[in-house]
Amino acid sequence: MLSEQILEAAGKCPEGFLLAAKQFLALGKRDAVDQALRRLAARGKLVKITRGRYALPVCSRFGTRPPAPEAVMGWLNQEGVQQLVSSGAAAANALGLTTQMPVQQIYLSRSRSQKRYVFGKQQVTIRTAAAWNFLLADRPAGQAIRALTWLGPDQASAVLPKLRTVLPPEEWEALLSVSAELPLWLAELLSEQDQGPLEVRG
């Protein structure tokens, strides 16, 4: 059956890989493939990510769950449809600048329209962000930019000494190299910090 052939092909894909009808046209006509995908999603065999796009759920000894949002967003990024980066809250947590876990899964995009992906109980929001959020992308230095702007001037000033010891030297230099493109308050903070003594890592 067409549905079984689709599932067999999907099972060879990595977690979060986005499936669309055009990938299965060798198995049947477009209308038949579309119907098969919708039926598989209705039966819980596939997870609908957005219109016409699906992903295979992950099965483990703990049960079945939707693919991790990070995996899905990673594949969206690879497709090049839109550049996505982690939110400032997520970046701050990843760098150890805060222990606060983001309540919502938020990614930033250059797109002018806000989007929301819902699969299972998980929800991912794509928000429009200023161009400087995408400087250095998901390099540690890029994460630092988004983390610092999310924290704001006062908290950013307090965590900068720690950030300087956390970032590898080349990432700190990369951060400084784009300071002219950052909000003025952040560029000034980075300039002040760069003139201070460097703490030795323990």
Radius of gyration: 21 Å
Largest sheet: 4 strands, mixed
The total beta strand count reads 8
- Estimated helix fraction: 40-55%
The separation of the N and C termini measures 61 Å
Total number of domains: 2
Number of helices: 7
Structural class: alpha+beta
Mean pLDDT, all residues: 88
The dominant shape is elongated
Word description of this protein:
There is one protein chain. The protein has helices at residues 2-10, 30-42, 69-79, 88-94, 140-166, 169-177, 184-195; strands at residues 47-50, 53-55, 58-60, 63-65, 84-86, 105-109, 115-119, 122-128. It has 202 residues and is an alpha+beta fold. It folds into two domains: 2-65, Arc Repressor Mutant, subunit A, CATH 1.10.10; 69-195, no CATH class. The chain has a four-stranded mixed sheet with strand order 5-6-8-7. The chain is elongated.
Give a brief description.
Helices cover 44% and strands 16% of the residues. The chain has 202 residues and is α+β, with helices and mostly antiparallel strands. It is elongated and about 70 Å long.
Provide keyphrases for this structure.
DUF6088, Type IV toxin-antitoxin system AbiEi family antitoxin domain-containing protein, alpha+beta, 7 helices, 202 residues, 2 domains, 8 strands, Arc Repressor Mutant, subunit A
Q: Can you lay out the helices and strands and say which pair or pack?
A:
Blueprint lengths: L1 H9 L19 H13 L4 E4 L2 E3 L2 E3 L2 E3 L3 H11 L4 E3 L1 H7 L10 E5 L5 E5 L2 E7 L11 H27 L2 H9 L6 H12 L7
Parallel strand pairs: 6-8
Antiparallel strand pairs: 1-2, 3-4, 5-6, 7-8
Helix pairs in contact: 4-5, 5-6, 5-7
Protein name: Type IV toxin-antitoxin system AbiEi family antitoxin domain-containing protein
